[in-house]
Every structure is written in structure tokens, then in C-alpha cells.
Amino acid sequence: MADAGNNRIMKWRRGAKKGKIVAGGNGKGSGLDQLDEPYGLVVDHCGQIVLGGNHRGKGSNQFDDPRGLSFDLEGNLYVADCDNNRIQAFSLISY
């Protein structure tokens, strides 16, 4: 769950009375352990959480107000980048 007001991503198990912080939770910021008002996320088929980063901007590795994320059947990621008026596509990387 994206918790924008507390700059963190929480994981809740069914029936739990308390959640676990899995990203952010160290105040608003751009550090590796910080988030800046997250309000969306996607969990891929491997259980990995996908979030944006690299500050706000127009670069191919940046977003400006991302509003939606989706994966296709091949595992490629698509991001609706609202204020940049574009859909960013990221190909699946095989290791």
C-alpha cells in the first residue's frame, strides 16, 4: 500500500493488525531510503515492488507525476507519465 502522507510503502498480510514498512519511512526526500509522497506501485510476477526514482524530470529514467503502471504478458513495464504527456515503456531484462 502506498502511504503518501507518511512517505512509505507498507505491506499488510491478510488479517494482520500491523503492517510492515518495505520502502521509505525515513521522511520525505530523495535518498535511497526515502520517498516523496508515493501514491502508486506495482508488484511484478516475481514479487518485486516497482517504484519510480531519479527525481522529477523529463529524462528517460525520470518521471513527472506518474499515474499508472502496467505489465504486458512478456513482463515489459509501461508507465503513464502524466506531466510529461507520455507513456514510458521498459523492456524486460533477462539475467
Strand content range = 25-35%
Mean pLDDT: 82
Side-by-side strand order of the widest sheet: 1-2-3
Radius of gyration: 14 Å
The overall strand count is: 8
Which spans of ≥5 residues are poorly predicted at pLDDT below 50?
none
Structural domain count: 2
Question: Structural class, from helix and strand content?
Answer: mainly beta
Largest sheet report: 3 strands, antiparallel
Counted by DSSP, the helix tally is 0
Overall shape: it is globular
Could you give the distance between the termini? 28 Å
Keywords: Repeat
InterPro entries: 6-blade_b-propeller_TolB-like, NHL_repeat
Pfam families: NHL
Structure description:
NHL repeats lie at residues 55-93. With 95 residues, the protein is an all-beta fold. The chain has two domains: 1-39, no CATH class; 48-95, no CATH class. The chain is 0% helix and 33% strand. It has no helices and eight strands. It has strands spanning 2-3, 8-11, 20-24, 42-43, 49-50, 66-71, 77-81, 86-90. The strands form three sheets. The chain has a three-stranded antiparallel β-sheet with strand order 1-2-3, with no helix packed on it. A hairpin with a 5-residue loop joins β6 (66-71) and β7.
Question: How would you summarize this macromolecular structure in one to three sentences?
Answer:
The protein has 95 residues and is mainly β. The chain has strands spanning 2-3, 8-11, 20-24, 42-43, 49-50, 66-71, 77-81, 86-90.
